[in-house]
Amino acid sequence: MSFQTLWVGVSGLTAAQRAMEVTANNVANVNTDGYSRQRVELVSGRPVPGTDGSRGDGMRGTGVTVADVVRAHSDLADTAFRSESATQGSWSARSDIMSRAEQVLGPIGGGTPKALADFFGSWEELSLHPDTPAARQAVIAAGASLAGSFNSAASDLDGLKAGAGAQIRATVDDVNRLAAQVAKLNAGIADATNGQQSPNDLLDQRDRLLDQLSALTGATVRPGELGRVDVYIGSRTLVRGETVETLQASSADPATVQWQLGGDRAATGGKLGGLVDSAATVTGFRSQLDALANAFMAQVNTAHRNGFDLTGNPVPAGGIQTGNGTDFFTGSGAGPMTVNITDPKQVAAAASATGGANDGNNALTMAALRSLSLPTGVTAEDTLGAFAGTLGTAAAQAKDQTAASGEVLDGLARDRAQVSSVSTDEEMADMVRFQRAYEASARLMTTVDQMLDRLINSTGMVGR
Amino acid sequence: MRVTPTTMFLTVGNGLQQSAGRLQDAQERLSSGKRINRLSDSPTDAATVLGLAARQRDWDAYTKAADDATGWLNTQDQALQSSSSLLQRVRELALSAGNATNSDTARQAIAAEIDSLKDELASLANTTYLGRSVFGGFQSTTVTKDGSGNWVWSGGTPADAVNRRVAPEVTVRVNMDGNATFGFAAGAGRDVFAVLGRLAADIRAGNGSAVTGADLTDLDARLSDVANGLATVGARTNQVEAAQTIGRQRIDTLKQHRSSLEDADVAQSVMDLQLAQSGYQAVLGATARLTMPSLVDWLK
Predict the structure, then answer these.
(1) CB contact under 8 A, A424 and B296
(2) What is the ipTM of this complex?
(3) pLDDT tens column, B205-225
(4) Where do the domains of chain B lie, and which CATH numbers do they carry?
């Protein structure tokens, strides 16, 4: 026994105190987002050989030291979580936009399909009563309401595309900011690692940023030197060590994301990828709608030109307005589509020049257009129905995939939390454990003190 | 497997979200009464529903046109039935006038009756349905009286067809070409009004052989024209009625099909709602019990 024993006791006290600090930190961060629980790694002190070098004296331990404070963390769980959160980010961005796109035709049982059916219905009604001015007016009104319905669908789709573009720009700003922060943290972590430290809290912070980056861009993370990480989008690095590349939204229509340097298109996944895809899909919807509107207008105008208006004038070919007759619809595409006639007399209900007010045969032909195929091979109503089906399928797919990847992501989040999250029960147990260890070390020092007291104050006092 | 407050909250939080979502869906289905509330609820069924709704509106229009056609055809049927019996009466008068025993006074009376029947026939020829002439093509009258008191053709051309589409591929002409029905097509002076005029004149003049000879032959020819008209109306009415029957069946079928795709099964929806509610309450209960005793409570 020597003074050395006292130092062993001190090392026990220090270790218990450090362990208690870590436990306290864990308990304090029990609900902190992204916090990984930490624990102390204790190692026994370097043993010293006996004083006289003989075997019998033995090597003696020198107490305990704190080797490191490590965080409980699984890179595998991180990788799985980030990859799925990119999928989830992509689908939920799509779902947001597609769930609005599916409403552009109005409610089921109303909206554009009903306006189209009402348009044909108004011609059917006119064929029954071609002598009634109200029936002629009704045809113009039904045409105007159909054109209005196409107009609003077109402007809604344009609005969605513009909205996606705005979201892309905002998200690109977020990504650039996050990437800069990751690079900065990379520097801090490299410094700490160089100094043989475990920068646990910096690592946690960076992991949280990397989670966000993956969800926004589908970025993948590869470990670099000295604890740094490189962040890849596609095969190009967004962050390499402590340097950052910048993304920007392109001015193309529909909007895409490109690298500022060189202007190559960035292969983004995640929310950005979903937004870029959605903008392209919505553009596709818009041109489908335009094609339908154009084919339909051509069909209606051709049939209308074959008729005669109330005063018996033929509606001139080529749709050039010359006094009495004209195209029924005008404008190119779903956006500018409008009804061309304002005077009910110009509605070409008659199929003969002499028929006058009582001839409703061209109105009958107009009504029959409903069962006449467009150049698409099916009727206007069926083409519109198929378009509605396309909208619905896109929305349903995005919704289902969002829900499915959401559930997978929840499971992966739990997997990760299972490794990293703080259990208060465990921490309480540790608290008791280290409290007892501290008490025991303190007790040891008291005992050593008493022994030394005996040695110093009570030895050689025979007969005193 | 480690269980920590975080993993418990993650589990319960997701459960809460999901069962609240199911509750909302069930409530929407029940309150709207529809299984498909937006296209994405079932894209293929929604597209089918749109198609069925379009077909249903088509057939609604066809049956409406068929109802209108029935009005036109019934009007003609009545007018032609009356014309037919009117001409029969003229024929009887002609036969009795041809009898040599008639006094001059009696013949004058018969001729006067035929003249008035002629005017009555003219008003039958000018029959309208909803203000539109049924025999006169696109013109407003079929016959008008000229300066010398004769009824002359004032209708349109035989091609003036009023058509009604009563089924997708079935278009029925619902007006009658008065040219044929009233003998104007048979040649100058052989139309029914000219025949009646000549008959009255011959009776007045006591020209018995003409009355029972050429006049009666012409009259019979006009009678058969009217009978032909009646047959045509009958055939068209049958066509329209057949289309109406098919139309009503089709509308019923389309409605049923549409409803089976579109409408929520109420009993099923109520069950779904109750299931979703009890599921939601169960998750709420689980959340409330989440703050169970921990080791902290025992370390006093």
Answers:
(1) yes
(2) 0.84
(3) 888 888 888 889 999 999 999
(4) 64-258 (1.20.1330.10)
